[in-house]
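debug: dumping io for the single-chain case to check the tokenizer round-trip. Nothing else runs in this session.
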Amino acid sequence: MLELKGIVKRYGAFELVIDRVVFEDNKYYIVLGPSGSGKTTMLRLIAGLEVPDMGDIIMDGKNITFEPPWRRNIGIVFQNYALYPHMTAFENIAVPLRIKKVPGGLIRDKVIEIARLLEIEDQLYKYPHQMSGGQQQRVAIARALVKEPRILLLDEPLSNLDARLRIEVRGFLKKLQRRIRTTIIHVTHDQEEALAIADEIILLNRGRIVQKGSPEDIYRRPRDIFTFTFIGLSNLVPAEILGYGSKGLVGFRPEDVYIEDGENHDLEGIVEAIEYLGSHSIITVRINSTITIKARANLERSLSIGERVRIRINRDRILRFDKDQVPAI
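debug: decoded output
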């Protein structure tokens, strides 16, 4: 178990403050937030690449706040993978074992074992420039895992991959975590990535943890407007237009909005935009000069720009917010 307690880290005007957060064993954690929210700072503190101005980092009951990185038994994969260009994949993966002065025969066995696990055995004698981005990433992960760390840290691991490969690799990462049964802490700004992979999401904004929970909790039960609007597509409208009084705002997701043909509807508007996304479309409906609502529509539903439509909202999915609570992205 890893615990961060009473952490404060300052960089000029920026301040990361973590009262307490616990990472349990054998879980996949995503640290999510906009640029500059403190995600990478948190990761560097855990890795030992930075020291907090205040607070403690405790792993398995031991205070490791001032332990150097090489004594923490924590693996890290950087955003750019940081492979040595003059070394083969085999030699890159072997680096942590050579530093530990592991015997040569055992090094070979361990490198082949981890390469087999990550399905890169056929890449071991290639140099980084001879491999794809996805293959380079697996080599970087293998190098971090070969020393059998208690925790694996991933800093924006999918950001350098194209869209198709990102989907493939995120599935691989989740499968890998289940096989090796270690704790992974993965930093990203990509909400879809977080929802797809995480057992738990830790959402940061302006140096503070604003919510921690399962993907479903974060998506369906956000604590504030920032969380609601940052995670996934959202609609946020004055409460009064749906009959919830004259104060505050209400929020709901596009998948909770239905295009209706009959009289059972909440609002009417004009189709302003149609985004075709393959499996479905996102329809933007203008209600008045200041309000638009996004609805998810099946492809079977034929709509046209400028068409007048009626929409119904699933009242069970509506969230109410204080009007003073301004999104802080």
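debug: round-trip ok. The CA atoms of residues 130 and 171 lie 24 Å apart.
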